[in-house]
């Protein structure tokens, strides 16, 4: 469904299924940069017996159009999260628990800090919340990499083969990668397939990350799990996890030793079990 936000934008919210209204809580999945909400369907499936799962597409990702004003500041995108929670509530589901991955984790946590009580709890996998201000636009290495990304493939089949044959996307489960190619691309008239999240928009999205820090989210008082993959603990954003957990009043840090930054895509059942544990205790 398409919903309006308080800042005049439109965000697409996907119903990934689960229990009926009144039979359990809701989960809102907030995705990582460059990806989209429907990629988390393999994570949503094991959650669906206990909760009803929804996932949004941030601006310029999946089916949500890029912002007309070019605003890519992550703190502004908390409006999209708030609108999604309101729509979930209007559908008869409460309370709402957040599941956030990378960018999505940072924005969900900031949304809760800015609007206390938005969520009942949060499970955040390597949220990009920094100790202080992030480097200025133009100095972000992830942005530079995004600008070099191939945008168009001869077909979806070619895109799937290319991604499956090399890291990092080759580390995803086959179902998750197939969902990326299905929902993260659009068909062009000549039969080719183009990324919905265009490389320049992805780069600018990385550059818009600087406003969410330990200090800006410190007011989030709900139970929070800050999860990290053990395969890259010395590198950001995993390296931010100890400081972030310490900055929050009710946070616990956990490490999944066998996973990397794409943990929710590498082992969706493992992360789903951890989310259910957080919901049960949070």
Structure description:
By secondary structure, this protein is an alpha/beta fold. The protein has one domain: 3-Layer(aba) Sandwich (Rossmann fold). The chain is built from 11 helices and 11 strands. Strands 1-2-4-3-5-6-10-11 form an 8-stranded mixed beta sheet, sandwiched between helices. It has a 3-stranded antiparallel beta sheet with strand order 7-9-8. Strand 10, helix 9 and strand 11 form a beta-alpha-beta unit. Helix 1 packs across helix 11, helix 2 crosses helix 3 and helix 4 runs antiparallel to helix 7. It starts with a strand and ends with a helix. The mean pLDDT is 95. One of its GO terms (molecular function) is monoacylglycerol lipase activity. Keywords: Hydrolase. This is Alpha/beta hydrolase. One of its GO terms (cellular component) is membrane. Pfam families: Abhydrolase_6.
Query: How many DSSP H or I helices?
Result: 11
Largest sheet: 8 strands, mixed
User: At CATH's second level, what is the architecture?
Assistant: 3-Layer(aba) Sandwich
> How many separate structural domains?
1
Task: Tell me the layout of helices and strands.
Elements: E1 2-4, E2 10-18, E3 26-30, H1 41-47, E4 52-57, H2 78-90, E5 96-101, H3 103-114, E6 122-125, H4 141-147, E7 152-153, H5 156-164, H6 174-183, E8 185-187, E9 193-195, H7 199-207, H8 214-217, E10 224-229, H9 241-247, E11 251-256, H10 263-266, H11 268-281
Parallel strand pairs: 3-4, 3-5, 5-6, 6-10, 10-11
Antiparallel strand pairs: 1-2, 2-4, 7-9, 8-9
Helix pairs in contact: 1-11, 2-3, 4-7, 5-6
């Amino acid at each position: 469904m398409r919903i309006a936000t308080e800042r005049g934008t439109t965000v697409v919210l996907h119903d990934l299924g689960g229990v009926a209204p009144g039979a359990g809580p809701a989960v809102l999945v907030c995705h990582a940069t460059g990806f989209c909400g429907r990629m988390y369907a393999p994570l949503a499936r094991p959650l669906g017996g206990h909760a009803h799962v929804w996932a949004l597409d941030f601006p310029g990702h999946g089916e949500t159009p890029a912002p007309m004003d070019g605003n890519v500041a992550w703190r502004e995108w908390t409006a999209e999260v708030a609108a999604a929670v309101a729509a979930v509530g209007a559908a008869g589901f409460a309370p709402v628990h957040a599941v956030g991955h990378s960018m999505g984790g940072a924005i969900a946590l900031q949304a809760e800090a800015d609007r206390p009580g938005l969520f009942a709890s949060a499970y955040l996998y390597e949220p990009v919340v920094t100790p202080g201000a992030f480097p200025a636009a133009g100095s972000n290495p992830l942005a530079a990499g995004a600008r070099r990304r191939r945008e168009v493939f001869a077909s979806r089949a070619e895109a799937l083969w290319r991604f499956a044959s090399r890291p990092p996307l080759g580390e995803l489960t086959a179902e998750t990668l197939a969902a990326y190619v299905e929902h993260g691309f659009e068909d062009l008239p000549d039969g080719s397939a183009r990324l919905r999240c265009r490389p320049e928009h992805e780069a600018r999205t990385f550059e818009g990350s600087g406003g969410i820090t330990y200090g800006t989210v410190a007011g989030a008082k709900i139970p929070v799990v800050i999860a990290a993959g053990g395969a890259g603990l010395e590198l950001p954003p995993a390296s931010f996890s100890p400081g972030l957990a310490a900055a929050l009043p009710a946070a616990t840090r956990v490490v999944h030793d066998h996973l990397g930054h794409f943990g929710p895509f590498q082992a969706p059942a493992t992360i789903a079990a951890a989310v259910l544990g957080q919901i049960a205790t949070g």
